[in-house]
Amino acid sequence: MHVDPTIFKAYDIRGIYPEQLDEETGRTVGRAFASFLLPERVVVGRDMRLSSPSVSAALIEGLRQQRADVLDLGMVSTDQYYYACATLGLPGVMVTASHNPAQYCGFKMVRDMPYLLSGDEGIQDLRRLIEAEDFRSARGTGTIEPRDVSDGFVDKVLDMVDATRLRRLKVVADTGNGMVGPSLTRVYDRLPVDLVGMYLDPDGSLPNHGLDPMKPENRAELEARVVSEGADVGFAFDGDGDRFFAIDDRGQFVPGDFLTALMAQYLIEREPGATIIYDVRCSWAVRDLVEAAGGVALQERVGHSFLKPRLLSEEGVFAGELSGHYYFRDFFGADSGLVPSLILL
Predict the structure, then answer these.
(1) Would 5-148 and 256-321 be classified into the same CATH topology?
(2) Maximum Cα–Cα distance across the chain
């Protein structure tokens, strides 16, 4: 089968719907994923994009065609999908194009948590299987079962911090009509937080602004709202919920390396001498503040395929990237948007 080779990226499969990637692509990705890993069961989730329901249905059809059993999470954030893969001990496929514009669709694929398929370790293998139509039967029977993991996910996120230490704060949170809103409200309802929500309802038409808070135009309204509300802090999340960003009480964007340093200090206080991993783009503020707090700071190359293995091999507690990805040992070595928001509080 011919498929656009440019959709097979370093960390995901992604393209414009339906010109580069459509339902038939989804079906063949499902067949190739099942053929490559030969699993018994596969976790499937999807984001709020308008193309995601039909592409997810086609993906599930392809998985079942190769006799993989499917646990269908429905519409979830990426960190909730990671939680499901980790706690169930299963591989998975998330239908999402992360922070990209509305016309994109794609797939993030877990091999074995916290490790994802990447360019030379799985993704290009899927491309070759699709092109050759070399599909094989997995170890299941092709069943499908809906699965709701939201209660356990909310409990796990709350367990990541000591809520008794939190003082009441006013927080403006902008989830940009992405996937974080539903779980954020459930988590914050159980904390001493006066929440001012912005665009909390998932809406794949993206009626308000884009999904990447690294772009100033996508956080400008939040920055102004923090000041006008007299809030203590503002939080932003990318479209699928695996990146986190903060605005201070003056309406100023806080860079990712400063957030890495702040969260590291809290985690070192809880676990003296802890090891913290940070990417090469971060300033010396991370190293200096980690060492001043009595921790060990180790620098690593950019990207989850480097940071996650280093976090585990060094027995670290936390890894931070300038891009807003934050990885936690106690969250299965995975990245999350909600977890760093609680640590910062």
Answers:
(1) yes
(2) 59
Model confidence over 301-341: pLDDT tens digits? 999 889 999 999 999 999 999 999 999 999 999 999 999 99
Query: Could you tell me which residues are beta bridge partners of residue 236?
Result: 174, 245
Distance in angstroms (rounded) separating the CA atoms of residues 55 and 14: 12
Contacts by 19-25, CB closer than 8 A, 24 or more apart: 21/55, 21/105, 21/106, 22/55, 23/54, 23/55, 23/57, 23/58, 24/58, 25/55, 25/58
Fold of the domain built from segment(s) 256-321: Alpha-D-Glucose-1,6-Bisphosphate; Chain A, domain 3 (3.40.120)
What is the average per-residue pLDDT within 139-162? Answer: 97
- The pLDDT value given to residue 121: 85
Question: Tell me: the pLDDT tens digits for 239-290?
Answer: 999 999 999 999 999 999 999 999 999 999 999 999 999 999 999 999 999 9
Class of the CATH domain delimited by 5-148:
alpha beta
- Is 283 marked active-site? no
Could you state, in order of their start, the residue ranges of all structural domains in the chain?
Answer: 5-148, 256-321
Q: Which of 98, 118, 183, 341 is catalytic?
A: 98
